[in-house]
Hints:
The protein has two domains: 100 residues, no CATH class; 145 residues. The protein is elongated and about 70 Å long. The chain is α/β, with parallel strands linked by helices. Strands 3, 4, 5, 6, 7 and 8 form a six-stranded mixed β-sheet that branches.
Amino acid sequence: MKLLVDGVTTKITRADQELRVLVYPSAIDPSSAHLRHLTGHLTVRRREIGTRWRRVTPGRQALLVLAHLQCGDTYAQLAAAFGIGIATVYRYVREAIEVLAALAPSLAEAMRTASRLAFVILDGTLLPIDRIAADTPYYSGRHKRHGMNVQILTDPFGRLLWALPGSTHDLTAARTHGIVDALAEAGLKCWADKAYQGAGGSIRVPFRGRRLKRWQRQHNSTHAKIRCIGEQAMATLKGWRLLRKLRCSTNRITNFVKAALVLHHASA
């Protein structure tokens, strides 16, 4: 059996038919900046390790990785579409993600960028993961599901500055990553929600309680208007469909988030 994919006739083996691999046309709308950025770094990577020949060009590999991130296509679907093996797809995706993750800014670099801003917004969001009940460190009692708690820093316009996953409560994760200390050292004003109550320093949180005074309610209203801008960064991060339901090892999630951050900065 043969299948026509992108003008190339690909042979479908009996093993593929027995596994009932469903092949379908998939369309993505990748940013040209994303494609150029990733292609350039993959070209440099191949030159560094001395790669002489591969089944796909750096540009095709970049397109494959973007399809995986943006559409969440499985390795089997990508293998059928690009005419390569599933193991090869896995190696290509892992290589590209590691290349991008190595380019991600550190917290210190993010602080230097943020020092020129009037303030930053700190928030956390849960990325659902496909884990079993035994993985209690990744279970969120609030959301009633397993997931990675990602700490996000944004600028006053909602643009993503820095992000890193964790497996703990927002305040604990912020302290573990060194965000609280970094903000205090930089003397940078930061708006956050009630989950960061008790962080101290320059992190401003709303008042808690049911019987608040009028000026406290007004403060909370103003605080919420400022903090809601950070939701744009969360939408940007979750715009990569793969991050909406991660089915990989929890050890690899950090690199996926860093890769999304680098691609976001590449198109900014």
